[in-house]
């Protein structure tokens, strides 16, 4: 009787374990698409903040390159091309400021075909000090909007620095490292675009699988 009870319990536990594993697998399969869609929607919202929708009629997520250049930071970064009626109308560059107070700061920089800044945004998460360095976020201040309309020649090279370093950009009270890092990263992104403008728009887009997120 004891052996029969143990065998029965083992069968029950095995069935329960198999059922649990199957449930988890099904749940994961059902939710992974939702997670990817949420990521895709958040990225698209950020791209549209620095490259307004009226400035392109193509799918930015599908018209993408991956490039490697020290001016954008270590490792690969994406470049999203904006086109209007089939013609190049701008690009959104991913860039990394490696010298933030709390480490790397990921950015996206939107530019028109002449290299004029359309917008800059910080890509969360970052480790800058709350109440000080986090003023690079639009929900904390409008500091980052100060890049709008600027370009490599406006200001001149020595103007691409915080005022403490002789440049034109404000820093934050008690926090100079963070804005200094962001200014430097945006400046380098513009240098990259200026040096690679033709290749940015002429290189074929990479194959990108864009999740269908229709309800």
From TrEMBL:
<keyword id="KW-0812">Transmembrane</keyword>
<keyword id="KW-0732">Signal</keyword>
<keyword id="KW-0997">Cell inner membrane</keyword>
<keyword id="KW-0597">Phosphoprotein</keyword>
<dbReference type="InterPro" id="IPR007329">
    <property type="entry name" value="FMN-bd"/>
</dbReference>
<keyword id="KW-0288">FMN</keyword>
<comment type="function">
    <text>Part of a membrane-bound complex that couples electron transfer with translocation of ions across the membrane.</text>
</comment>
<feature type="modified residue" description="FMN phosphoryl threonine">
    <location>
        <position position="176"/>
    </location>
</feature>
<protein>
    <recommendedName>
        <fullName>Ion-translocating oxidoreductase complex subunit G</fullName>
        <ecNumber>7.-.-.-</ecNumber>
    </recommendedName>
</protein>
<keyword id="KW-0813">Transport</keyword>
<feature type="signal peptide">
    <location>
        <begin position="1"/>
        <end position="17"/>
    </location>
</feature>
<keyword id="KW-1278">Translocase</keyword>
<keyword id="KW-0249">Electron transport</keyword>
<dbReference type="Pfam" id="PF04205">
    <property type="entry name" value="FMN_bind"/>
</dbReference>
<keyword id="KW-1133">Transmembrane helix</keyword>
<feature type="domain" description="FMN-binding">
    <location>
        <begin position="100"/>
        <end position="193"/>
    </location>
</feature>
<keyword id="KW-0472">Membrane</keyword>
<dbReference type="InterPro" id="IPR010209">
    <property type="entry name" value="Ion_transpt_RnfG/RsxG"/>
</dbReference>
<keyword id="KW-1003">Cell membrane</keyword>
<keyword id="KW-0285">Flavoprotein</keyword>
<comment type="subunit">
    <text>The complex is composed of six subunits: RnfA, RnfB, RnfC, RnfD, RnfE and RnfG.</text>
</comment>
<comment type="similarity">
    <text>Belongs to the RnfG family.</text>
</comment>
